[in-house]
UniProtKB/TrEMBL annotation:
Job description of the protein: Necessary for efficient RNA polymerase transcription elongation past template-encoded arresting sites. The arresting sites in DNA have the property of trapping a certain fraction of elongating RNA polymerases that pass through, resulting in locked ternary complexes. Cleavage of the nascent transcript by cleavage factors such as GreA or GreB allows the resumption of elongation from the new 3'terminus. GreA releases sequences of 2 to 3 nucleotides.
InterPro entries noted in UniProt: GreA/GreB_C_sf, TF_GreA/GreB_CS, Tscrpt_elong_fac_GreA, Tscrpt_elong_fac_GreA/B, Tscrpt_elong_fac_GreA/B_C, Tscrpt_elong_fac_GreA/B_fam, Tscrpt_elong_fac_GreA/B_N, Tscrpt_elong_fac_GreA/B_N_sf
Lineage: Bacteria, Pseudomonadati, Pseudomonadota, Alphaproteobacteria, Rhodobacterales
Source organism superkingdom: Bacteria
Start and end residues of each Transcription elongation factor GreA/GreB N-terminal domain: 4-74
Encoding gene (name): greA
Annotated protein name in UniProt: Transcription elongation factor GreA
Organism: Ruegeria conchae
Length: 156
């Protein structure tokens, strides 16, 4: 199995979600199923069927998180330096619009573009890997080719 790169904060977030599912959500849904069973006929019991469906979702998510965390390769960006690599916080300027953007390159399970967390497998991240400050990068996106200049790289 291939290791999954992850930052310490991304790993901690997934571990917290797993702990919440196991210690809060799972017991609550078991109680909800028990309460719904007491209402009688299970064939026409919407509460029971809803609770069972939610239980299936919770159990599936627990298994998914356990699998991800078992393959996690936690990489601390604070110990890195130099050209852009996993964990780097990169500030770019769009050469066409002069718009500045800052992204941190993270693993696919912690990526969230709205929060500035860029999936390492995304076209932009793949184009940035190995580049240095001052380099120009062309990225082929669904909206066409975009040109960026790397303004700064920081590892925190």
């Amino acid at each position: 199995m291939e290791k999954i790169p992850m930052t310490p904060s991304g790993n901690a977030a997934l571990e917290a979600e797993l702990k919440n599912l196991k210690s809060v959500e799972r017991p609550a849904i078991i109680e909800a199923i028990a309460s719904a069973r007491e209402l009688g006929d299970l064939k026409e019991n919407a509460e029971y069927h809803s609770a069972r469906e939610k239980q299936g979702f919770i159990e599936g998510r627990i298994k998914e998180l356990e699998g991800i965390l078992s393959l996690a390769d936690v990489i601390d960006p604070a110990k890195l330096s130099g050209a852009i690599k996993f964990g780097a916080k990169v500030t770019l300027v769009d050469e066409d619009t002069d718009e500045e953007k800052t992204w941190q390159i993270v693993g696919e399970y912690e990526a969230n573009i709205e929060n500035g967390l860029l999936n390492i497998k995304s076209p932009i991240a793949r184009a940035l890997i190995g580049k240095d400050e001052g380099d120009s990068v062309e990225v082929r996106t669904p909206g066409g080719v975009r040109s960026y200049e790397v303004l700064s790289i920081e590892y925190a």
